[in-house]
Request: fold
Amino acid sequence: MNSRKRAYLEETVKILDAGRRFYLGFFLAHPKILMERVEVISQKTGEVKEALISADKLLTWAEFQTVATDAHPDPQPAWNFSQRFPDFPNRYRRSVIKDCLGKARGYLSTLSTWQRSGKRKGKPGIPTAANHPTLYAGTFTLELETLDLRKSFLRLKVYTGEQWEWVHYPTRYNRYFEQRRAEEGWEQESPKLILGKHVAAMHFVQTKTITAKKIVESKHDPDLVTVAVDLNVKQLAVITVRQQGKIIETHFVSDHGLDQHRYRHLKRVAKKQWKTGKAVKGERSNQDLWRHIRCQNRDTAHQTARAIVEVCKQYPGCVLVFERLRVIKPKGGSKSRRLNRKQANQLKGQINHLAKEKAYAIGVVSVEVNPHGTSQYCARCGGRGVRFTSRAGQRVTGKGGKLFFCPVCHYECHADFNASVNVHHSFFREFHWQPRLHNSG
Ligand SMILES: [Zn+2]
Reply:
């Protein structure tokens, strides 16, 4: 956006703040009306109750007192908003009034609590008028339906310093926002205009009402389906589904070489730090490389989270179980290897967070279990096992082994699968190695 358009936004925020100062002053000058209790009839039960006068009624009252209309040309002389702020758009005025109503009421109620307490200290301060403006419908239109996302724009009513005008602003938004906009059940609250030092943004709060059973209730359901996830570096997620003690479904989500790919990038990042700082011609700068790495991580996290939630979708009422993520500080190896471990850990965190969020959006609750022992013990008998790799038909035991072997019951399987099954055991606390409150060892 150009500097002129930027200046308009600043002017708009300024005049909205001024409007807010006006109404905050107005409401605080009429505390009795603001805190008036009236009789209301409950629509559900028909009962008559006493309650605070509604915000809508106060809004109408405040407008009547302060705004000049044809039918009512003379508002209170000391509080004539129309005179002080000519042409102030109605929608913005309402947004400002509602904002101040909340602030003023909040202040008055803490003030009266403080007065009743008889304390000297801790007198509540008068609220400030500054706020990020809420953009109600009618003050903006967002053109998101264009095919090219980069060409989408926001049409916003702004104050130029002299008058109110509609101005176009180019916008970018991420596609997850767009997805939710299209999905059913998501509600959008009025966005806020957040004006930073260098950028301006519209913040939309997207909400959805969810009904989900409590975990404790679910645990008593004998048919409960649990979906357990073991997060790893190359097998990003091993998802196992269990019902009535049996594993009924397993999914491996591979990283499709992301870890290797990222490692190569990080090697170049590390290498460049030896150089004089100037980027080699035709090569990406370190900043670009980092951005690329972050972007890839984020996309992979979203994809993996989606794969997890797709499984949950097939079992309505299931519980999604994760291990609590351990904070592992990468040690040893080259600098690029350590950097890569760190990125892999962050990716795990992102998958965990996004999967929970996406699961919650479809009404699936998630729990975290103690990660203790899930990779060391046998998911079949609970014995302590070993990791190994198979070389020419021989078991070569070692920490980095992809396979798991239990010397007690001779069970052999993929180590990450074993861990994923153990996450279910952890959830139901079925094995001796599960931490209990009174563990005698
Ligand atoms: Zn075993």
